[in-house]
Amino acid sequence: MTIRAIAVNPARPEEFIEIQQETLTPAEYDLLVEVKAASVNPVDTKVHKGAVKNGLQQPRILGWDASAVVLEVGSKVSGFKPGDEVYYAGDLTRPGSNSTQQLVDARIVGHKPKSLDWAAAAAIPLTALTAWEGLFERLHIQDAREGARLLIIGGAGGVGSLAIPFARLNSKVEIIATASRADSAQWCRDRGAHRVISYHDMAGELEKQGIKQVDYIFCLNDTDGHWEAIGQLIAPQGDICTIVENEHPLSMDQLKLKSAALHWEFMYTRSMFSTPDMARQGEILNEVAQLLDAGKVQSTLNETLQGLSVETLTAAHQRVLEGHMRGKVVIAY
Kindly report the CA angle at 188 between 247 and 287, in degrees rounded to 5? Predict the structure, then answer.
């Protein structure tokens, strides 16, 4: 079978090109899969931007969120066999899922939710892992006291759309989400947010509701732009987690005065550094699949583009770059 892929063009990195791949052979912990659908995330556009800025010697295949069928398994793989339907977010250091076939470490792969089609399943892994790790492994909101408050900055995006129901199902916190438009605010409420405010004046809007501080803050966009408000709103001894790198130095004055903690969440840490607990990501994806199949969480799929091509991948990247997505855009192969 010919392996087609859409890759960043090394001659003109701002553009994508179609390439043919050689036969792929799984290493001992690898699955060789046939990709059925892949979603596009901000990380795709950031890696693409980096390729444009720094240049490439050879085509680079992006894409780190997919649903697929297992074709072959490596010699040390357990829990998977050819024919299994899977979903995963992959590994930034390896070729991505914008290809008809891909190699992925089995330890960071989950069994696809049975109730979802390929596109709906592909919308889940990266954002589910980011939300789950941020909430439960960085902020530890599952240990929160009754009445504690969680502010999710960017509630209608891919991560926020899953962070809201995860927090609702697995903690006692009151969930406050930010949204910029009426339809985005309703999207957050539909997923379980107790309150929705505009991100333009978070402190002012919360004060109108009698809230001066929150115990937890999960920042999912524009860390620089929101930093002053974050420092103002975090409660003494509170916890902040952000997934967005800062472009300017962040003042730690308020955090020091309040003995507040700052956590970073980067979903690719485990696979990038082959941490001893990297298999936890496969376990999380299986837990999330059970929630989806039980109807407790819904897919965040918002738009599906048909067929893997230069045109569909370019269009999907443009949707993400516009910055107004509710949920996820997916390409069905």
Answer: 85
* Of 114, 136, 81, residue with least CA distance to 289: 114
Torsion sign over Cα 231, 233, 236, 239: negative
Closest alpha carbon to 289 in 112, 126, 146 = 112
Provide the whole-model pTM.
0.93
166-175 pLDDT, tens per residue?
999 999 999 9
| Domain limit, last residue, from 264, 284, 304 | 264
Residues 6+ apart with CB under 8 A from 311: none
- Quote the distance between the C-alpha of residue 263 and its chain's center: 16
Task: Tell me the one-letter amino acid at 325.
Answer: M
What would the pLDDT profile of 22-56 be if each residue is shown by its tens digit?
899 999 999 999 999 999 998 999 999 988 888 88
Domain check: are 232 and 284 in the same one? no
